[in-house]
Amino acid sequence: MFLTQNIGSFAGPKTAAMKISLSEDRHLISRELIHTITGNSVELQSAEDLDQLIDQIGDAQYVLLGEASHGTHEYYTWRSKISKKLIAEKGFSFIAVEGDWPDCYRVNRYVKNYPDSGKSAFEVMHAFNRWPTWMWANWEVVALAEWMKKHNENLPRGQKAGFYGLDVYSLWESMEAILKYLGKVDPQALEIAKKAFQCFEPYSAEEGQAYARATMMVPFSCEREVIDLLKEIRTRISHYNTDHEAVFSAGQNAVIAVNAEKYYRTMVKGGPESWNIRDRHMMDTLNRLMKFHGSHAKGIIWEHNTHIGDARATDMTADGMVNVGQLVREQHGDNNAFAVGFGSYKGTVIAGNNWGADMRILPLPEAAQGSWEYLLHLCGAKDRIVFMNDSMKKRFGSKMIKHRAVGVVYHPEYEHRNYVPSLMPLRYDAFVYLDETKALHPLHVAKDVHQIPETYPFGV
């Protein structure tokens, strides 16, 4: 087995690392490494086994729950179990996910029992139509949303737990939401919104990509229009006499229009800046949500491990990239944030062969030898929560270990490419390891994907 030891500063450049070899003899591995892991972990079989994790989270206001893929059933169900405990036992204010604001805001209104917000979570989530639809239009999240609706049913407005999207992609949907809202409350501001929308209209067929390509070929962008729109809404928003969340949502959609324009314009140039625009937008959205929910607000964040695990503990930092996990700690303190990574050794996963392709159930091969998941598999092939305490930091804190990351586009035959070198105890505060996992259950039926699972609602 091989681990990579980092030489020098915290998550330094790739060229500053060297390889060290450890014997593959199972007895030696058990004595030197596995004892440390098993001694700082608990086996995970039921929701009651999460109690120690909830205790470790303590008074942190930000709990970041990751995933090693966007298509794994168990990542969603265990995050749901953790989130339910945080909401019911610690009074967390909302779940914010790696999803589009307009779609997730409709879910928020449903789980908070707003009038005319939908007949069922299935109906609301089935309307998610941006690829990859399965990320949020799945039976696992339907079950969570129904639980949240029931939990919120008899609570006063300020205590209802919400559900929001953090992402920046929804340029067109956010513009359309602005037009619809302003059409009801502010005809004057509506004219400014229409002007901004008309600037983007020729490129609407391909979301932001066509617009981004156009700005590469000609010195043109719609930046001025969307900034003017944001200023106008901010100036007039205090006069809107609609429910408090609708006003907040209108302002958020205006911010998305500004940042999405910048994101798509930067995306075609390559480099890390488009990634950084996206994660900074998600962090800014999180800050706005916390402010909106008051001084005692607490938020749960659901995103891929690459967003919630501190980027400074990976080789991302050498490429000039930041992420939400890093920004939360920098802005709000290490003790006020608790990041939980997720991963598995083998199984199946929902993904596509390329962007926009049909979703498929694909094999998730056994984790590569020497990886974090491989090492955890050697600890008895049992599901467990590993706590990244001082003992783990002493044993693993200076060693770069490859850690699997699967995206919405996935090719199992190129599995060796899907690993991020990481200082695991510095990237996360805890890690949920699941030895064998299976694909989640999408609402939109596709080839090789079953529609309604027999085990719904999964006990979440």
From TrEMBL:
Domain of life of the organism encoding this protein: Bacteria
Pfam families: Erythro_esteras
Database matches in InterPro entries: Emycin_Estase, Hydrolase/PRTase-associated, UCP036794_erythomycin
Annotated coiled-coil segments of the chain: none
GO BP term (any one): response to antibiotic
PANTHER family per UniProt: ESTERASE, PUTATIVE (AFU_ORTHOLOGUE AFUA_1G05850)-RELATED
Entry protein name: Erythromycin esterase homolog
Annotated organism of origin: Chryseobacterium salivictor
